[in-house]
Predict the structure of F-box domain-containing protein.
Amino acid sequence: MKNRISISSKLETFPNEIFFEIFDRLLPSDLYQAFYGLNTRLNTILNDSRMRFRDNISSLNSKEFHSYIQNILPQILNRLVSFTFGTYDTDEVRLK
């Protein structure tokens, strides 16, 4: 447990720009699942207007796809610069 606290403390010292660079290489669905809700700073970085997202949801199963549409897409839609997807039955999906 002591090592975990030490690693967390070092991670917290990184400037926001480092997080932007790291997060730029990850898919939004992975980012929000892994980092959102961990702490206020990471939530703020994920919601920062400078964050731009490129997403590929081709590999999501139907349940993951519906969860993505309801939970993640609304949070990133205005910052989404690239979006790739496969064939999905979207008749049941309604964006609010």
Summary: The chain has a mean pLDDT of 82.
